[in-house]
Design a protein that fits this description.
- The chain is of the alpha/beta class.
- It folds into two domains: about 170 residues, Rossmann fold; about 140 residues, 3-Layer(aba) Sandwich (Rossmann fold).
- Helix content is about 50%, strand content about 15%.
- This is SIS domain-containing protein.
- InterPro entries: GlmS/AgaS_SIS, GlmS/FrlB_SIS, SIS_dom, SIS_dom_sf.
- One of its GO terms (biological process) is carbohydrate derivative metabolic process.
- One of its GO terms (molecular function) is carbohydrate derivative binding.
Amino acid sequence: MSSNVPSEPGTIMSGEMAEQPSVLRRILDEGGPAIREVAERIAAKNPRFVLLTARGTSDNAALYAKYLLEIQLGKPCGLTSMSTTTAYGAQQDLTDCLVITISQSGGSPDLVASTEAAREAGAITLAVTNNADSPLAQVSEFHIDVLAGPEKALPATKTYTAELLALYLFVDGLRAGQGAEAAKALPEVADAILARKGEVKALASRYRFAERMVLTSRGYGYPTAKEAALKLMETSYIPALSYSGADLLHGPLAMVDNISPVIAVVADGKGGEALQPVLERLRDRGADLVVIGGQEEVDRASAGFALPTDGLPEELQPIVQILPLQMLAYEVTMARGQDPDAPRSLAKVTETR
């Protein structure tokens, strides 16, 4: 059979989602020592603050890294606005600053240009990519390969979870921690979640005709809510709005009524505790509330997906929280008669400038 025969809709995305447990194992077994070495070399330079640069899915990975760096290391940390450099030509003093640029392809011109500018401004530069030969990796002082293997579906799935784990191991290495031991549980948990396709398919039936969705979380779960919203928008074309639970209460809650579909990512930890007042308000408004989280939280909602995260540290939970939401985006898209492998008007490498 010719390799040029088109695959069935969704085949590529489904296959890449299924690879995620093996990708996580590969990072732990093969990538861990190299990530640790990079972390030790950067820690020796003692950066005074950190800037994170990314677009799209990688921007959500960057937000996860921001939580890790601020909570685990106490380092001031921010997300960059690349246009200040690439469009406005601003010159910054980045002496003793660590600039981490995250990109699956490492090929977008604005990421490369802003990283070059950061290095010229005195920054310590680190690229986190799925392509060791990319232009971004070449212009950066340090590089971490997320080892996800080729990703052909336009919606990023395995590269996102690979970025999260690589960033977790990197931050753990900066503080000379022992977090890699806790991370060893991730592949098995991921396997268990991905085996529950039937549950997700049943959940997807709620959203086949949805005109709008709201996703919310707090703390480490917030990047998960943002990434899930992105996946739903780029595959099923449903407008999906993501909010920190705290921001949701500052106005957007007014648009939620008894027919509004809301997905809450409820972490087992301080982020989930901080989200409780938001969940109460959503229940009071009669929202169609679905919870991705622990069994007790799922039981109190309209429906949900119980995550087997008992004993998994809160900072590691985002790596598996996103899995049922990736599957949900896939199933909703298939139910609506669309192809999640090839969303309209999108390219795998987005060349912003």
